[in-house]
Amino acid sequence: MASERIENALTLLPDQPGCYIMKNANDDIIYIGKAKNLKNRVRSYFKSSHTGKTAQLVSEIHHFDYIVTQTDKESLLLEINLIQKHQPHYNIKLKHGTMYPYIKITNERDPQIIITSIVENDGGEYFGPYPNVYAATGTLDLLQKTYPLRKCGKNEKRACFYYHLGQCIGCCDHEVSLEEYEAQKTKIRSFLNGNVRSIKNVLKEKMVAASEDLQFERAAEYRDQINYIEQTVEPQNIMSKEYNDRDVFAYYFDKGWISIQVFMLRQFSIIKRDSALFPVYTEPLEELTSYIVQFYQQANHTKPKEILVPAGLDNKLLSETIEVKATTPKRGSKHKVLEMAQRNAKIAHLDKFRLLAMKQQKTTGAIEQLSEALNLPYLKIIESFDHSNIQGTNPVSAMVVYEDGRPNKSMYRKFKIKTVEGANEFATTQEVIRRRYGRLLKENGQMPDLILMDGGAIEVNAAREVLEDELGLDIPVAGMVKDDKHRTANMIFGDPLEIVPLDPRSQAFHLLQRIQDEVHRFAITFHRKTRSKQSFTSKMDAIEGVGPKTRTKVLRHFKTMKAVRDASIADIQALSIPEKVAIEIHKVAWDGQKDNPYEQAEADTAQTVLDADAMNQETE
Known about the structure:
By secondary structure, the protein is an alpha+beta fold. It has helices at residues 4-10, 38-47, 52-60, 72-86, 133-146, 161-165, 178-192, 197-212, 216-232, 284-295, 315-322, 332-362, 364-374, 425-443, 457-470, 507-541, 548-558, 561-566, 569-573, 579-590, 597-619, and strands spanning 18-23, 29-35, 63-68, 102-105, 113-116, 125-127, 246-254, 257-266, 269-279, 306-308, 325-327, 381-390, 393-403, 406-407, 413-416, 450-453, 477-482, 488-493, 498-500.
């Protein structure tokens, strides 16, 4: 149900084209759209039922603005400009395309031919893009030798080196007429448009002649030049000549998502493909129109002489907006390539949702299986605990959280055991459960739907005793039991505890394995860090001149052993620590590590002493 503010605004909407701007409660722009009739389009958001992504968008709309335009073309251009300026969350965002190179004839009195990856509206002539930068560079080199333009700088006082090599037209030596430039540019255009047979024949003759004269390096140069032509400008046999200099747009729409495929056809073949997949909040054809206009506003997308689009689009509006002819072929080779793009769009869409279905099976699907096996409601949040110690020293515990079957690492927690000495699984479990859920009770935090203990009946019973008898909480607790090879074997649950029959091939069992492996990894990693830090602390206590204050100062500043090892003696001294003490702290940090510089220094010193003794014995 729309709010009173929105209801009042809807009554003021005009029956004219324009753009509408949806905003949330914080006045942030969340969506921008265009409409031929603002009243009908904007009202449809609030007067119709929606599902999925559109429903989510509508739920966030707090109020809206609109801008009236005179024509549909104006509203389309305004929509694109506003989207690019504000980047709303729910609008499509085009990814930056690959920086393929172009061959460019510059727009100057004395033009050059260069390679560039940036297309600008500077009056220059751009050819490409070319998928092979090395071939494009080789082709440019061939053009400069065959149809030279200016290659030197503009401030040459005399004929440049390239002019004497025949690779510069000679504006550095004499004034070149516009007619002569235009003649060269015409030959270059013809070459880059595929008319290369004559120059290829000349190169082949030169290659054969050089080979017969045993000039194999020169013959290899001609061979490479022929290859460059074939890779950049020569028509490919697999494609029709009608494919030259066109872009093809196609789409597939289902489940509220649109998949778009773009084929860029240059030099008579498909040289590049772009794709996009995003949710739709209006009509799919309108989203496709918006996508096409944005596509050609990106710097690296030159406009072809024609675009092929599916039926249903306003081709006249598109042509006027992007200033490129838009057509929808009904038959022939153009229709076939449009169909190919549509098939690719459908495949990309289906693949996306197959992947989503597979992910859902592994996450929410696995949770549903696990919930059913335990006869519990949907287990949205699962918290799992594991303990780690070595013969009772440096005991720690760790907790991981899975939400909808996925790890939520921001909710992970570590516990240093404070009240238990030695390896006492029962008492350790009780301390951790008491601390975790006693705190949640005080803070009125969200309780999990299931607690998983990495262990058997001892840990499960210890957790239940604290939850039920001390905290008065009714949270299900299950245990994850491992076999003699330390692999997940089964789960125990219930009162009395029994093995839950889970198929080892089921997604629920695989999820259980992932949770048990993750909580074990997290606990072991925390224990290793704690033990390493404790060892470092103990060794520092044995250094003369290091007391509790110095020890705390070093630990707080460097935080990790690795940071101490990576630090210089001067870095440690900077904490107001004497040099001698700083050296000893650095030595302790390196103690037991591979490539210990202090051990190497001692070994070098010992070897020097042995060498000196040997020399003395020889002298005697």
